[in-house]
Amino acid sequence: MDILQTLYNEIIGFFGIGGIIKMVQSGDYSALSTLGGIQMVMGALIPFLLLFEILRAFFYKRFKIEDYKIPFLVFVLNRFVSNFISIAAVTFCIGLLEKWAVFTTTFTWYWLIYGYIIWEFSHFVYHALGHKVRILWCLHSTHHAPQQMNLSVNFAHFFLEAPYADVVRTSICILLGVNPALLFFIMFIDGFWGSFIHIGENILKDARLGFLNHILLTPSHHRVHHAKNPLYMDTNFCNLLNIWDHVFGTYQNERMDIKIEYGITREMNPNSLWDVYFGEFVCLGKDIAAAPGLKNKLLYIVMPPGWSHSGDHKTAKITRTAFIEGERKDKDK
User: Fold this and answer.
1) Helix H or strand E segment including 72
2) Which of these, 262, 255, 268, lies nearest to 323 by C-alpha position?
3) Is 248:124 a contact under the CB 8 Å cutoff?
4) Tell me: the pLDDT tens digits for 181-226?
5) Which of 3, 14, 226, 247 has its CA 20 to 30 A from that of 257?
6) Which tens digits make up the pLDDT trace of 251-305?
7) What is the spatial distance between Cα 260 and Cα 227, in angstroms, rounded to a whole number?
8) How far apart are CA 148 and CA 64, in angstroms?
9) Is the pTM higher than 0.70?
10) CA distances (Å), origin 238, targets 20, 52, 121, 300
């Protein structure tokens, strides 16, 4: 019975409906008029969308177990460790850095605008570093390994990535004056939207969302981010407001003439949990072992993926620049 109860609790926890069940059982729906109640209901939407996505794929005979297997196994692997470390990391950063904030904000609508712009900047910093620093790419690559886009990809992360991301984002936000209560509210909105933008074509074929594609970072933008096509590599690092991608030149719209190819560029077995989870660490270890001298060994750790001590660099920036230049020359002919 304990096993069944544990399984029941895990299912309820995954779908985020524990609070909703208690509310229905009590018959008291007053919580729905509060911010906490709204968050409780919204928190359950993404898991149910994932379930709907899977059922719809079954109905149209498009379901492939390999599209969901590895993200699910990664989620199970991360279930306990990552969450506890992330909570501790956020709490530690707030306690350590709040006294050093340049000024203090309050939980008001105008500070929410400021706070979200700062949050997006901090997210951009963490996310860009995850693509530009080899050791951090080893953490982030697990999320990019799936070769299809669906809501389960949202749960595919190396267990240390969330704590690292939360340390970077929380530290920047707290130092730039974002109120902790406001920060947690922003985190909730960002978490919901960050999950939604992984929605697959089984539910949303055209993911540009109409006019919103000019205002927000849409699922279409995030599909581009997950692509390994040369034009799309290392673009669209933001999460909801794509302002910083415009500022730093990493914004890229989805082009209808380029079919998105998901995954990462190295040869790998996308159905191997070991390769998805540890493959990049293995590759980095081999490069470090083969590199001559201590300097080159250290450079492999901090330089972008694709950097080589031989000078034969195959970084995303070089690959993307070459593709754009090639297209320009073709047009000039």
Assistant:
1) helix 65-78
2) 255
3) yes
4) 999 999 999 999 999 999 998 889 999 999 999 999 999 999 999 9
5) 247
6) 999 999 999 999 999 999 988 999 999 999 999 999 999 999 999 999 999 999 9
7) 6
8) 10
9) yes
10) 31, 27, 8, 26
